[in-house]
Amino acid sequence: MKAAPLLAVLVVCAGAGAQSTHVVAHASRIPVQGAELYCREVGRGTSVIVLHGGPDFDSAYLLPELDRLSDKFHLIYYDQRGRGRSADHVTAEDVTLESEMADLDQLREHFRLDKVVLLGHSWGTVLALECTLRHPKRVSHLVLMDPAPASAADINRFRKERVEKWPALMELRKAIAGTTAYKEADPDAVVAYYRVHFKPALARSEDYEKLILRMQARFFEEGKEGILKSQAIEDRLVSETWASPHGYDLHPKLRALNVPALVITGDHDFFPFSAEHIAQAIPGAHLVTLKDCGHFPYLECPTPLREQIDLFFNDR
């Protein structure tokens, strides 16, 4: 199927310091095959399942800013299997791309949703795309925020460009990863690693520091055992996708989709080409580039992000 012409929009970022309104959330644990998923619901309206990034993170880094959408949407956050508050009684060997897909579909069934909006961030967009390709009739809309690469070629391009653009940072990151403290999952060392990793990914230092503080709290709460499990899960999922010996490329498959898609990136994101390639592949996809915004638009540019999401749904 030939893709429809791509519509791209550049949006000036404003209101980056806006605060989210007070909302009341409900937490629960949803039983799935072989695990229990921590789930957090907030808001009313169209149901949206939120897929966090990583693959070694949980949903905490998205809060509280993404809750701004709860005045119009019923947001369903969950920690993916084996990570965060969904880690109990799960080993890294229990997590595969297929288990991720099964968990997501069981969540949809639990909430009695014939069709669902999927909102993915970073790695979460890969899961959203994989799910939609498997079950296109069960997904009503896709919102892809700063999508991670959907092909091995794009992840390799990202790695190559990262070294070329920020050689000193990448040497420092490599040095940290080689320390005994990092290999033994010392939280301080892991925080230091991600401090370097995300340095080029945000447009403003105040947002960068806020993100790092959030990650620091999460790593210390998780502890060495949790960090090691999350890292092992990441290795397994990467081996099934970007590092698969069979090659990994979702772009040709995406051309067959008939699902409305909003693809959002920032002009300071460290792989904006990923958003462009995904939007070019999905017929009729709407690509938006937020100005003065990096990899975390819900944190950095909440107002223009919200405006674009509202426009996307109002148009439909």
What is this entry, summarized?
The protein is of the alpha/beta class and 316 residues long. It has helices at 97-110, 123-134, 152-165, 167-177, 180-183, 187-197, 205-240, 251-254, 272-281, 297-300, 302-314, and strands at residues 7-11, 25-32, 35-42, 46-51, 73-78, 116-121, 139-145, 261-266, 286-290.
Question: Overview of this structure, please?
Answer:
The N terminus is likely disordered. By secondary structure, this protein is α/β, with parallel strands linked by helices. The radius of gyration is 18 Å and the shape is globular. It is 42% helix and 18% strand. A 9-stranded mixed beta sheet has the order 1-9-8-7-6-4-5-3-2, sandwiched between helices. It starts with 6 loop residues before the first strand and ends with a helix. It has 2 domains: 215 residues, Alpha/Beta hydrolase fold, catalytic domain (Rossmann fold), CATH 3.40.50.1820; 87 residues, no CATH class. The chain contains 11 helices and 9 strands. Strand 8, helix 9 and strand 9 form a beta-alpha-beta unit.
From the alpha carbons, calculate the radius of gyration and give it in angstroms: 18 Å
Q: Total domains, how many?
A: 2
Instruction: Supply the helix-strand structural class.
Output: alpha/beta
Question: Which residue ranges are poorly predicted, with pLDDT under 50 across at least 5 consecutive positions?
Answer: 1-20
Biggest sheet features: 9 strands, mixed
> How many strand elements?
9
Rounded mean pLDDT score = 92
Shape: globular
CATH class of the largest domain reads Alpha Beta
CATH topology of the largest domain: Rossmann fold
Q: Which architecture of the largest domain per CATH?
A: 3-Layer(aba) Sandwich
Count up the helices. 11
- CATH superfamily membership of the largest domain, which one? Alpha/Beta hydrolase fold, catalytic domain
Strand portion: 15-25%
